[in-house]
Design goal:
This protein is an alpha/beta fold. It is built from 24 helices and 10 strands. The N terminus is likely disordered.
Length: 561
């Protein structure tokens, strides 16, 4: 059955990122796809390096997977391909299972992509997309900042042409710095030149493909001057042609060691892809289906696993590249896939002359860009508590590891939610001078009418805050001349078992003190729970009011005369 989303009639579970075609927009979309290829090819090569994969597999991620999502996804803007966060998580999970870049390593990376695809599709079937909401925006900023620092630190050795240290990120960096006395000046010159070209191009115009210019220039210089003779290492021969298709050479016993890694990857894919799609859908006043996108992301990862690539994710940076170039539909992404196809068929030969220092420099800048200083500063200005959580998450990613950082990010997000519910906002409501409802601190014990206090409780009533709620109500009940307390329940969306028991005991205690407990603006779902718990019957039908104003008016002397 057809549905309407964002003014578009959608009768098919695919092509919604492409249809309806806007013929006037198509040339711009096609050109935006070429721009994405120019900017994105160096980027995904860098992500392949981060993931510990052969450079060519980065291109594979924006060949079939990007096209699959363009066809199956609902977002008209989200670009799917290799991504820094998932590449780091993948590398962290595989580093102890196989030698980096070896056939076994590549096979395990393919298996991780297949497992990710299956989990994403299952998540769609059992409606687990909500898990993405357990990574708050502030925690995600902290996580990506930590990833950026870790990624940048890991490229120092290749940029200076010295052996990298071993161990965790900090020990690895310290070991690398200790080797700086062995710096290869030719390698350092290459790295410095690449940084100048990329940063200089961005300074002139962000649409200039500085990374592509640096890579092409470095290949030409390396080919003509034989930089390898000066000790500058190159990536070596790169296989051309289409990727081979088939199941990776793995066994069932390889599944268990990858479970935690895949779980972390799936959570990041869910959070980052959904956040990016939402942002651009809001920007252009379009709707998208998270469930459709889950299927698109799942099948895209299956395609990646079957084509020798590694996990793919919705990429904020590549999505911004297309948007900045004027792309407004997945036609742009299909155009990118076509350009990558041409590169794979005819232009992989020159890549063998590419110095490793060039890719290290590109990856270093990717890491630096992930360090969201503005985002962290923005959190600090408005929420010091959330800044602390973001900073701790970033520190754990850098010092301990990415997978641990993901787990901590989720735990901290949940604890932050529970903390807010544990100490919810409570205020006393009364009628202001202009006849409108006015809120005042509970410490003032403000009466809404003679003998009446109205308490607004702005949270669900559950096990963590039930005792605090009860204590506050009993304290208010001790206010002189108070004989009725009205609970403004407009902010209560749920009452759990502990909350029910608390309300039942509280009503009984107040009754003994000759203080009546009534309710105003109770949501239908909460009223149904109260009916089921027996609270409604015990309180009596006259204890429920449609609004706070009605409750106040019923307590005024004229109303009772």
């Amino acid at each position: 059955m057809a549905t309407v989303e964002g003014g578009r009639k959608r009768s098919l579970p695919f092509l919604n990122g492409i249809l309806p075609l806007n013929r006037k927009q198509m040339p711009t979309d096609l050109l935006a796809g070429v721009t994405l290829a120019a900017l994105g090819i160096p980027e995904v090569m860098g992500y392949a390096k981060i993931a510990g994969m052969p450079v060519i597999t980065g291109l594979y991620t924006i060949l079939i997977p990007i096209a699959v999502f363009a066809i199956l996804g609902s977002s008209r803007h989200l670009v799917v391909g290799a991504d820094s966060a998932t590449a780091v998580i993948l590398a962290a999970g595989l580093v102890g299972l196989a030698s980096v870049g070896s056939p076994q390593y590549v096979a395990l990376a393919g298996l991780a992509a297949l497992m990710t695809g299956v989990v994403l599709i299952v998540a769609r079937l059992i409606r687990l997309g909500f898990l993405a909401d357990f990574l708050s925006r502030s925690v995600l900023i902290g996580f990506l900042t930590g990833v950026g620092i870790q990624v940048a630190m890991g490229q120092v050795g290749a940029m200076f042409g010295v052996p990298s240290g071993t161990g965790g990120s900090i020990h690895k960096l310290l070991g690398t710095l200790a080797n700086l006395g062995q710096t290869n000046m030719a390698t350092l010159a290459v790295s410095a030149t690449v940084l100048v070209v990329i940063l200089g191009s961005a300074k002139i115009n962000k649409r200039i493909p500085g990374a592509l210019i640096a890579i092409v220039g470095a290949i030409l210089v390396s080919w003509n001057r034989d930089l390898s003779a000066d000790g500058v290492s190159t990536i070596g021969k790169v296989p051309g042609g289409l990727p081979s298709f088939g199941m990776p050479d793995v066994s069932w016993s390889d599944l268990a060691p990858l479970t935690a890694t895949v779980g972390a990857i799936v959570l990041v894919v869910l959070a980052q892809s959904a956040a990016t799609s939402r942002a651009y859908a809001a920007k252009y006043e379009e709707e998208f289906s998270e469930n459709e996108d889950l299927v698109g992301l799942g099948v895209a990862n299956l395609a990646a696993g079957l084509s020798g690539a590694f996990v793919v994710n919705g990429s904020p940076t590549k999505t911004q590249m297309v948007d900045g170039a004027g792309g407004r539909s997945q036609i742009s992404q299909l155009s990118t896939a076509f350009v990558v196809l041409i590169v794979l068929l005819f232009l992989t030969g020159p890549l063998q002359y590419l110095p490793n220092a060039v890719l290290a420099s590109v990856v270093f800048l990717i890491g630096v860009e992930l360090v969201d200083v503005a985002g962290m500063r923005g959190i600090w200005k408005v929420r010091k508590d959330e800044f602390t959580i973001a900073a701790v998450t970033a520190a754990v990613v850098v010092v301990v590891g990415v997978e641990q950082g993901v787990i901590l990010a989720i735990v901290l997000s949940i604890l932050d939610y529970v903390r807010r519910g544990y100490r919810p906002n409570m205020s006393l409501m009364s009628i202001g001078k202009e006849g409108n409802l006015h809120a005042s601190p509970v410490s003032e014990h403000t009466l809404a009418a003679p003998g009446l206090i109205v308490l607004r409780f702005a949270a669900d009533l559950f096990y963590a805050n039930a005792n605090g709620f009860s204590t506050q109500v009993l304290e208010l009940a001790g206010t002189p001349d108070v004989n009725c307390i009205c609970l403004d329940a407009s902010g209560i969306g749920d009452v759990d078992y502990s909350g029910w028991k608390t309300l039942k005991e509280l009503r009984s205690t107040l009754e003994q003190r000759e203080v009546r407990l009534v309710f105003a603006d109770v949501q239908p779902s909460v009223r149904a729970e109260m009916d089921r718990y027996g609270i409604s019957e015990a309180a009596g039908e006259g204890s429920f009011f449609n609004s706070v104003s009605e409750a106040i008016q019923s307590s005024e002397p004229d109303a009772n005369s």
